[in-house]
Design brief:
about 180 residues, single chain, 12 strands, about 20% helix, 4-stranded antiparallel β-sheet
Length: about 180
């Protein structure tokens, strides 16, 4: 997974301060680490190796942030970048990624966000970018902006997500709390 992340960032990095040297990508002083995960979105249940997987149908408005720091201290710390990658050929209807022009730091009303999630509409129609999930497509964006995944109406949407951090976050501490 780390090699895939390094490859993606080496060849798709929008940040001006990446120097293409023989050093590893993550040797740059701005990058302190990364985390990654996968999502499966579908309207149907999926069986894999005789195990039933209940995928998400959608994902409501949210930002990516250091949840522990926010919960403990009320301080917003977002990753430097978020990367969405669709690594598997798929035929899917719906499941669009939407990115709003509203940042969490803009402090939108939580009730407005909840209403938009329930009715599956944009926060502000003119201020949302809608991106169709497509095999081998990469989307790189500022994760402090609200974003979501609309309902998958047909098919299965497979996603690989990477957050690039410019600070050491508390993920290890969070992991240790659940041991």
């Amino acid at each position: 997974n780390e090699l895939l992340i390094e490859y993606i960032m080496k060849h798709n990095n929008p940040l001006e301060y990446y120097a293409s040297t023989n050093e590893g990508f993550f040797m740059h002083n701005k990058f302190k680490g990364f985390e990654y995960w996968t999502h499966i979105h579908s309207n149907d249940k999926i069986t894999h190796n005789k195990t039933e997987i209940i995928p998400r149908k959608n994902l409501g408005w949210h930002t990516n942030k250091d949840d522990i720091t926010y919960e403990r201290y009320g301080k917003l710390i977002h990753p430097l970048l978020s990367v969405i990658y669709w690594p598997i050929p798929m035929e899917v209807e719906g499941g669009y990624l939407e990115i709003s022009s509203i940042r969490e730091l803009d402090s939108p009303e939580e009730s407005d966000l909840e209403t938009c999630n329930q009715c599956n509409q944009e926060i502000y129609t003119d201020n949302v970018q809608r991106i169709q999930p497509k095999y081998n497509r990469i989307v790189i964006f500022d994760p402090s902006y609200y974003h979501r995944v609309l309902d998958v109406e047909k098919g299965i949407r497979y996603t690989f997500v990477i957050d690039i951090w410019s600070k050491e976050n508390l993920i290890k501490e969070k992991s240790n709390e659940h041991l």
